[in-house]
Amino acid sequence: MAHPSKSAAPDGSFQDVLNAAENPVELMRNMPTGAYIYPVVAPEFTNWRDEVMAWRETAVLFDQTHHMDNLIIRGPDAHKLLSYTAINSFENFPVNRAKQYVAVTPAGHVIGDGIVFHEEQDQYTYVGRAPVTNWLMFHAQYGDYDVELTADRRSPSRPMGKAVHRERWRLQIQGPRAWDVIEKLHGGPVEQLKFFHMGTLNVGDLTVSTLRHGMAGAPGLELWGPYADYDKVREIIMEAGQEFGLKAVGARAYSSNTLESGWIPSPLPAIYTGDDMLADYRNWLSTDSYEANNTIAGSFVSDKIEDYYTTPWELGYGGFIRYDHEFIGRQALEAMDPALQRRKVTLAWDSGDMVRIHSSIYGTAELPYKFFDLPNANYGSSNFDSVIDRDGNVVGLSMFAGYSANERTALSLAIIDPQIQPGARLSVVWGEPDGGSHKTTVERHQQLAVGVTVSPVPYSTEVRESYEGTWRKQGQV
User: Fold this and answer.
1) Cβ atoms within 10 A of the Cβ of 242, count?
2) How far apart are CA 9 and CA 14, in angstroms?
3) Which of 474, 477, 429, 473 is nearest to 451 (CA)?
4) Strand 123-128 vs strand 97-104: parallel, antiparallel, or unpaired?
5) What phi and psi, each to the nearest 5 degrees, are found at residue 12?
6) What pTM value is reported for the model?
7) I want to staple 347 with a disulfide (CB 3.0 to 4.6 A). Which of 127, 207, 416, 452 is the partner?
């Protein structure tokens, strides 16, 4: 399938940005955009500790309306577009189902992932972060596809008081008492469909779309509908859930959920190098795209941008790969040995070293250690801290760090060399070299090697044994 180059947009292309940069790594390490922001939703509704503990103890309302794109794909070639761009098989994907979607480059490196909903015949919606939205839009425009796209982009990171509008609202009801809330909303029993099957639910006088989801073995639902109904639906849900201990989850608590569930949310989209299709893609991307403003944070620094790329197996997506269809990156993946790929793990950070990090901000004699924010400690869009062995050799990368109020432990999700076993003792180098980069989220600081214990994904035994969606455990040590 041909992909002719697109002339640069009026404000230039992303390739122009790369051409002007000395090195893609240095460009993104010093990008002023800083950390990934979960916009619009209040940081806290009660306090983030109670909000985190509620998804294990009672029930929570996650607000996913603002931080993700919705890309609605309509037309007779919608299935063809998704199949060609995904490592997943779309051969058995009827209406009213959803599935995890993973896209890779021709070299087999991950661009991103998200959820695809099959809503109607010849109509699908991708929900997730911008790199996959951009990849699908590019191929829809330059491939031989009869499709119509509606891009409902994520809300502005800093709306500065201006009105925010989305095509759809999106909420989740989760936790041990979630189904009590759901049946009260509905006015009676609700069929517990299979995982990732879709249905409907009564909310007041509205009928909203649903997706069966779940946390720690407890069934829950994701709900969505037209944005005009957002306030009404949210108020009805919160009122119905009051007797069951339902708590609204703010942006601070929400971001720490992935530490417990095991999803690495922001791999670097592997599109910064490569010829032919990827060169065309970089010329298609604009200077205001996610890729052109992405930030790299952490102690791992390499001159080669390729050292930041990941494969599906490393992120736990190896089980998704199906060679029953032609797709971008198929030949490259077939040539890789899964046994040699790094594996996804959780790293449990030593409490004593965490005390040193936090106490250092009160001393005046020397630079403090890099600030470890709570509960989400990430300070870039894509995070890469070196994981080292006792001899100082880099044996992996820590890619998402924070604190779990349920486990009362600092944790990070990482990819490490496959021979390293659970229980092994390693260190994460916390903080950037030479006092830090020029990102807006980085203050002057010094580094610290934090002791960590290699642990399973998901970290919690309860979650690991009963979390719905076994893909989160694939590729773990």
Assistant:
1) 11
2) 9
3) 429
4) unpaired
5) 95, 170
6) 0.94
7) 452
